[in-house]
Specification:
Blueprint (H helix, E strand, L loop, with lengths): L1 H23 L4 H13 L7 E5 L1 H4 L4 H4 L5 E5 L5 H6 L1 H4 L7 E5 L2 H5 L4 H18 L4 E5 L11 H16 L4 E4 L26 H11 L7
Parallel strand pairs: 1-2, 1-3, 3-4, 4-5
InterPro entries: Ester_Hydrolysis_Enzymes, SGNH_hydro, SGNH_hydro_sf
Protein name: SGNH hydrolase-type esterase domain-containing protein
Keywords: Signal
Length: 221
């Protein structure tokens, strides 16, 4: 009987170690653990506004300062896709019980080979995860930008933006912010002066446009 007990204990320990190892191999696992460590030191207040998405939010270093009066929580993790956002929706959104979720994600999905339709499907899955867990929360999508270094993906970006915009317009407590249109020149091409040398991520001038466009859509407490 004693041998059986030790066998069961060993089995449980091995399963636990195996599960942990698998979790650590998941994309962006370390990023999510970093957020959890931050929360353990200083938990953001509930009913804030969660900004979730990819590197355009990650590199927006003063986002929480800019939107301090809105109780902003920046949970962007660089390089992530809508598929990754769905994987971690409990950790990066539902956990905080926000009054509003602002999403910037999808650009990396398309750059990784997803079609506009696949990107749209991933968005609606994410939207419905949030809506199911937080029925009264406002969900706001920030349009994907067209980047000079990803010009070949522009048709899919524009198409996916249109599909997401049409979808959000039919939903309650949902919105769409078109930052992309403000970042194009008179010929409809991305303005290179708004971008860093990689022609993908933005300079402050790009974020200034975002602040101007996003702010009117944020819900005050």
């Amino acid at each position: 009987m004693k041998h059986y007990f030790y066998f069961r204990l060993l089995f449980v320990l091995l399963v636990g170690l195996s599960t942990t190892a698998l979790a650590q191999n998941k994309p962006f696992w370390n990023d999510i653990q970093k957020f959890k460590r931050q929360d353990s030191i200083s938990m953001p207040p509930q009913k804030g506004i969660v900004f979730v998405g990819s590197s355009s939010f990650t590199m927006w270093k003063d986002l929480e300062t800019v939107y301090k009066d809105y109780q902003a929580i920046n949970r962007g993790f660089g390089g992530s896709t809508l598929k990754d956002a769905n994987e971690y929706v409990n950790d990066i959104v539902l956990h905080y019980k926000p009054r509003q979720v602002v999403i910037y994600s999808g650009e990396n999905d398309i750059a990784s080979g997803a079609t506009a339709e696949e990107t749209f499907s991933r968005f609606t899955t994410f939207f419905n995860h949030i809506r199911k867990g937080l029925p009264k929360t406002e969900i706001t999508y920030v349009s994907m930008k067209q980047s000079p270094s990803r010009a070949k993906f522009s048709p899919e970006v524009v198409k996916a933006n249109g599909m997401i915009k049409a979808y959000t317009e039919k939903q309650k407590r949902a919105g769409f912010i078109d930052v992309n249109a403000k970042m194009l020149d008179s010929n409809g091409a991305p303005r290179p002066e708004l971008f860093l040398n990689d022609m993908l991520h933005m300079k402050q001038a790009g974020y200034d446009i975002w602040i101007k466009e996003i702010t009117p859509h944020l819900k005050k407490k």
